[in-house]
Amino acid sequence: MKNRVVSLLVVMTMAFLGGCGNQEKTPEPTQEQTEQEKTSTEETAREETQKETEGQKSSLLTGTYKVPLKDIYIDTPNYHEVEEGYMQIFTVPDTKYVAISTQRKKSPTNVTEAHEMATEIFIKGMSSHDGGVNSINITEDEVIDVNGIEVYSFEGTINYGRVNIHDGWAKGYSFIMDGIPCQIIGSVTDDSQSQELIDEIDEIVTAMMESVRSEE
Q1: 3-state percent breakdown (helix, strand, coil) of the chain, nearest 5
Q2: Which residues sit opposite 144 in a β-bridge?
Q3: Strand, coil or helix: 8
Q4: Could you give the maximum distance between any two Cα atoms of the chain, in Å?
């Protein structure tokens, strides 16, 4: 009798221990799963940053300009709009402006030629604004890629001559689109030449260049 009781206790103990051993354990995440979760988090962060950036650009640029007879679209700021021949000016008088210049009858072979051709139109078009443009002094330039478009990027100052005895800070981009030379240039004409205005024009001109496209 005693042996039966002992045997029964042994069987029950083993059954209990076996049951405990069969309990499911939460598996540790594999390295691959950890990497996937990390990648997903990074992608979400990038998407949120992109949406935020696009929102900021949309607040800077409120309209769209289409180059006549060409498939060229460029978003523009909410400044006073002035048409001047082969160029379009968006201005806050005596403070700042951006201009889009195109040379529709010439076909450049590279972005340097495009810059020279478009600058010629820009200087002619500005003859009745801010006392005209005497010269553009480029202090920094480079050829870059913006959304698949080869671009001549430049920064410097513009001498305005009669009205403004000071030089105005300027930044621009020249490129070839739909076979013609194009240029986006912005300048601060306010006497203060404040960093706040410079930063604003820098941001707007860059956003305009990034908005250049062949379809509306």
Answers
A1: 40, 35, 25
A2: 151
A3: helix
A4: 123
Reduced to 3 states (helix: H, G, I; strand: E, B; else coil), residue 29 is coil
This prediction has a pTM of 0.73
Identify any residues that bridge with 84 across adjacent strands, giving them in sequence order: 87
Residue 180 host element (H or E): strand 180-188
Q: Extract the tokens encoding 207.
A: 């956003």
- Bridge-based pairing state of the strands 73-77 and 61-66: antiparallel
Give 17's contacts (C-beta < 8 A, 6+ positions apart). Answer: none
- In whole angstroms, give the CA distance from residue 80 to residue 50: 29
pLDDT tens, 49-81? 444 444 445 589 999 999 999 999 999 999 999
Measured CA distances, 144 to 73, 105, 111, 135, 173 (Å): 20, 25, 10, 24, 10
Rounded CA-CA distance 180/72 in Å is 10
Cα 81 from chain centre: 22
Q: What is the pLDDT of residue 53?
A: 44
Amino acid at 77: P
| Distance, CA of 122 to CA of 101 (rounded, Å) | 6
* Dist CA 96 CA 77 (whole Å): 11
